Structure formats: C-alpha cells, structure tokens
Amino acid sequence: MSEYKRPSWDEYFMEIMESVSKRATCDRGRSGCVIVRDKVIISTGYVGAPKGSPHCDDVGHLMKKVVDEDGETHQHCMRTAHAEANAIAQAAKQGSRTEGATLYCRMTPCRTCAMLIVNSGILRVVVQKDYHAGKETKEIFKNAGVELVILSDEMQMYKDQ
C-alpha cells in the first residue's frame, strides 16, 4: 500500500489552476489562473476572448508578429485576454481585494499581465514553467518586490511561436 502524500498549498492551487485552464477558448495556449489570499480562492480566470467576442476555438486565431528589442520575432494570438488579466478583472468585478494575494498560473506572465499583477497588489506569483518573453516580467516583479516562483526548469513553448 502506498502512503498518501497530501499536496502542499502550492501543489493544491496549481492543480486547481489546471482545472480552470480547461475552460480556455484558445487551443494555442489553454492557460488558467487562480488568485488566492490567506489560502482562500478569491478569483479564477482563463484565456478567452472578451465577453461577446468570437473565440479562437470558433473562428481561428488572430495572429500578430511581435518584434523584440533584440530583433527576434514571435507570433502571438491577440484575440484573447490572458488568464491572469481575466482573473484580476473577475476579482475587481466581484469586489475581491487582491492586495497581498498569491497568483497561480501556467507560465511566467507577459509584461502587460505583470504590470496588472503589480498594480493590483499581488505579492507572490507561482508558475509551472518559465516563458521565453519573461525577462521584462522578472525585472518588473523584482522592482516591485513581487516574489516569482518557477516550479519547473522547462520552458513554455508554442507551435508557430
């Protein structure tokens, strides 16, 4: 008989984040997000088009080329709002305070989501994987005193990136 191992809080909330990600409507990046304060979930979000707009799963991606400062180019889908932004918006919509919270998500947030995270008062971000575009995010978090915990050495990659 194997011994039961109770998950840590981070493992527990990451498992819930995985469940939330199943609602995502962009097959390119089915990501989810859970925001927790005092070990209580205050909000969730997943990747999806704005309310009333068509979803990638229904009409396809809205791909745009993004050029980094070093000249490297990447393709990004612009039809959807990211899971982190949607979770923060849901917290605001429900009147849930995010000050001092922890955010759980699939990968190092993008620069825009990082700014939302910092300005919403979230102090800790736990991610499964790093993301190639996470350099600016790490600097934003460092400057704001937001702790970033990356659980895996694996880099999040997308098809046609």
What's the gist of this structure?
The chain has helices spanning 9-21, 56-59, 83-94, 111-119, 135-144; strands at residues 32-37, 40-46, 63-67, 73-77, 102-107, 124-131, 147-150, 155-156.
- Sheet bearing the most strands, described? 6 strands, mixed
Structural class based on helices, strands and sheet pairing: alpha/beta
End-to-end span in angstroms?
A: 45 Å
Helix and strand succession?
Answer: HEEHEEHEHEHEE
Which percent band covers the strand fraction?
25-35%
The rough form would be described as globular
Q: Overall pLDDT, averaged?
A: 91
Helicity range of the residues? 25-40%
Radius of gyration: 16 Å
Helix count, per DSSP? 5
Query: Stretches where pLDDT falls below 50 for ≥5 residues?
Result: none
Number of E-state strands: 8
**Assembly annotation:** single chain
Task: Please specify the SSE layout and strand pairing.
Elements lengths: L8 H13 L10 E6 L2 E7 L9 H4 L3 E5 L5 E5 L5 H12 L7 E6 L3 H9 L4 E8 L3 H10 L2 E4 L4 E2 L5
Parallel strand pairs: 5-6, 6-7, 6-8
Antiparallel strand pairs: 1-2, 1-5, 3-4
Helix pairs in contact: 4-5
List keywords for this structure.
single chain; 161 residues; alpha/beta; 6-stranded mixed beta sheet; two-stranded antiparallel sheet; 5 helices; 30% helix; globular
